[in-house]
Design a protein that fits this description.
Oligomer: single chain
CATH superfamily of the largest domain: Butyryl-CoA Dehydrogenase, subunit A, domain 3
Order of helices and strands: HHHHHHHEEEEEEEEHHHHHH
Number of domains: 3
CATH topology of the largest domain: Butyryl-CoA Dehydrogenase, subunit A, domain 3
Distance between the termini: 39 Å
CATH class of the largest domain: Mainly Alpha
Length: 393
C-alpha cells in the first residue's frame, strides 16, 4: 500500500492496520523493537509524513489528525505508538534545522528521524563543525531510523558557565547501537543506547536547544509557517497523549470482550459481565477515558488556535498544557490498572494483551516529560505565583 499525497484518509489507513499491529505486538516485545513488517506498513500508510514539510512531500498534519492516528496504533501496540510519536516529533524538530540540513535529511517524505533530549554526549568545536563523542540512551526506534538528533553538551571555552546544548543531526549509519534495551514496559520501542565515536557534524546540521525553547530556530523556509511556529515542548504534550488514550481504549475493549467469556472464580457468577462489580468497574474506567479525551481535546484546540492567531501563551497556559498532558496519562493509567486488576489471574498469561497494556501504561507515566506528579508540581508553582522551576514548558 503506497501512501497517498495528503493526510485526508491517514487515520482510516492507519485504523485498517490495527489488526496487523496488534498481531505483531507480542513479537515487538520479544524482539525489543517494532517488527519490520509493521514498521514498513506504517511507513507505506504515510505515518512518518505528519510533520515533514510539504515542500518535501510531507503532510504537516493537523494536531487532531496526529492524535487520532497515533491513538489507533496504540490500540494495537503501545510500543509501536510510542516509537511513532518520537519519530514524528523528531521530524518536526528536524524541520527547524537550517534549510541546508533539511535538504540532506528529507530526501523523501517517509524518512524516519529519531532523537533524544538527554545531553549525555559531548561535542568539541572543530573546523566547520563539531566532533561528537559519547553514549545517548533511550534512542527510541533507532533500528529503523535514517537519522538521529543527538543532544550534546559543548563546554564553554573559558570553562566557566553552563555548557551549551545542541541538537546534532547524525545519520544513523554513523552511530553504534548497543544491545541494552531490556525493560518491562514499552519493551518493543527499540529504545537502545546509541554511541558516537569521533563523529564529525558540520555546522549546518546543528540546532541550538536554548534559542529553540525560546521560539527561535535557523530555518528560513519554515520561519513564517504557523505550523512550525508551534512550541516544540507543547507539541510533545500533544504527542504523548495518544499512546495513553489508545492503550486505555484497548484495555476497555478487551476487558468487555473477555467479561462475556469468563466467570469470576469462587463466586456464583458464571459470566463476569453479569456482575454488578463489573458494571461499576467498566463505567468508572470509561469515565476516566472520557475525561482524558476531553482534556486532550482542550489543549490541542488551544495550541491550534494559537498557531492561527499568533497570540503568545501565558506562563499559566504553558504549564497547564503540560499538567493536562500528564493528567491524561494518569487517568488512562488508572483506567488500565482498574481493568487489569479486574481481569483475573488468567490475564497474566503472555498471550493476553491486557497484561502488556498495564505494563506499557505504567512505563509511559514514568517518562520524565509525562510524569503526572512532576507536571502538576510545575503548574502548581505558577498557580502559586512562582516561576515554573524549569525551562521545559
Amino acid at each position: 500500500m503506497a501512501a497517498v499525497g495528503t493526510d485526508t484518509d491517514l487515520v482510516t489507513r492507519v485504523r485498517a492496520l490495527r489488526p496487523l499491529v496488534r498481531e505483531h505486538a507480542p513479537g515487538a516485545e520479544q524482539q525489543r523493537r517494532v517488527v519490520p513488517k509493521v514498521a514498513e506498513a506504517l511507513k507505506d500508510a504515510g505515518i512518518h509524513r505528519m510533520n515533514v514539510p510539504r515542500r518535501y512531500g510531507g503532510y504537516q498534519s493537523r494536531l487532531r489528525t496526529q492524535v487520532d492516528a497515533v491513538a489507533e496504533i496504540a490500540a494495537g501496540c503501545g510500543s509501536t505508538a510510542f516509537k511513532t510519536v518520537i519519530q514524528a516529533g523528531c521530524s518536526f524538530i528536524a524541520a527547524l534545522f537550517p534549510d541546508e540540513a533539511q535538504d540532506e535529511i528529507f530526501t523523501g517524505p517517509d524518512v524516519r528521524v529519531g532523537g533524544t533530549l538527554v545531553p549525555d554526549a559531548t561535542a568539541v568545536r572543530s573546523n566547520g563543525g563539531y566532533v561528537v563523542n559519547g553514549t545517548s540512551g533511550f534512542a527510541t526506534g533507532c533500528h529503523d531510523a535514517d537519522w538521529h538528533l543527538l543532544t550534546v553538551r559543548v563546554e564553554s571555552e573559558s570553562g566557566e558557565g553552563p555548557p551549551e546544548l545542541l541538537w546534532t543531526a547524525v545519520p544513523m549509519a554513523e552511530l553504534e547501537i548497543l544491545d541494552d534495551w531490556y525493560v518491562s514496559g514499552l519493551a518493543g520501542t527499540g529504545s537502545n543506547s546509541v554511541v558516537a565515536r569521533d563523529v564529525f557534524v558540520p555546522a549546518h546540521r546543528v540546532l541550538p536547544v536554548g534559542p529553540l525553547l525560546a521560539g527561535g530556530f535557523p530555518s528560513k523556509s519554515n520561519a513564517d509557517d504557523p505550523f512550525y511556529r508551534m512550541p516544540v515542548l507543547l507539541l510533545f504534550c500533544v504527542w504523548t497523549a495518544p499512546p495513553a488514550l489508545g492503550l486505555a481504549r484497548s484495555a476497555l475493549t478487551e476487558f468487555t470482550e473477555r467479561s462475556h467469556r469468563r466467570g469470576i472464580t469462587y463466586t456464583f457468577h458464571q459470566r463476569q459481565h453479569e456482575a454488578t462489580v463489573t458494571h461499576l468497574q467498566a463505567a468508572e474506567a470509561a469515565m476516566k477515558i472520557s475525561c482524558a479525551e476531553l482534556l486532550t481535546a482542550d489543549f490541542v484546540s488551544l495550541i491550534e488556535a494559537r498557531a492561527e492567531s499568533g497570540e503568545p501563551y501565558t506562563p499559566e497556559e504553558r504549564t497547564r498544557i503540560r499538567a493536562q498532558s500528564g493528567y491524561v496519562a494518569r487517568l488512562c493509567k488508572e483506567a488500565v490498572d482498574l481493568l487489569g486488576s479486574a481481569s483475573g489471574a488468567s490475564s497474566l498469561h503472555r498471550d493476553t494483551p491486557i497484561q502488556r497494556t498495564v505494563r506499557d501504561a505504567g512505563a509511559l507515566c514514568l517518562h520524565s516529560f509525562v510524569n503526572p506528579a512532576t507536571n502538576l508540581e510545575i503548574h502548581g508553582r505558577v498557580l502559586s505565583g512562582l516561576d515554573p522551576g524549569t525551562p521545559f514548558v
